[in-house]
Amino acid sequence: MIFSKSQNFSQPFTTGSMLSKISAIGLAACLLVTGCTKADQNATPVEGASEEPSSKQALSENDAIASHEADSRIDSNVQKKPEGKPVSYDVQNWKAVPNQDLSLEDVDTLKRQFGKVTVTDNKSLDYASNIAVKYRFMSGDQPYLDIIDSQDYVELGWYYANPNDSDKEKKVSINHAQKVYQVMTGLMGDEGSELVQKILSGKIIKNKEINGTKVELAKCEFYSCMIIMNKKG
Length: 233
Prior knowledge:
Largest sheet: 7 strands, antiparallel
Number of domains: 2
Protein name: Lipoprotein
Structural class: alpha+beta
Keywords: Signal
Number of helices: 5
Distance between the termini: 152 Å
Number of strands: 7
Strand content: 15-25%
Shape: globular
Oligomer: single chain
């Protein structure tokens, strides 16, 4: 009987142990199936919530970049102005008046080559910033054609048309160049006409003596052509 009692006392202990083992096995199975604890399950939605705003933020930034690039392309297209047709100077077919003997000292004769004086400025300045007289042969806002005369220098200046100017402005600029071509041929012969051809093509002439006359500067750039000659030779 003692043995039996011993069995009876041990039976409840064995049953409780079995229940504990079953509970442990069930919990382990739950962990294997779910792969997480309750605390982990509570943390999962927070992590997912943090990903959603991050994705939206990245998408928003991409949209902003794409929008900025599109605006830049639009601004570039608006600001980009189509290039006009370059001005063509057919110098090879220009004809100068033959046997024309002109002099830097005879400014009145030079003025007649350019036409009628529309404005006279007695307080202008020459190449060396000395007092000079400027004779203008165009009116208002028309492309200018000038002679600047001082004690030491004679300067011929005219408007140098650019590709985006109107056809009318280009034509006037070409006519000015032809008149200067005539005058320079009369002053220096063929070398004078060659000088005009060179500067119309973009070359710059400095401190060069041509047929006894010193050319201080001759060039065409930035909407302006000029030929500055020293009277003293």
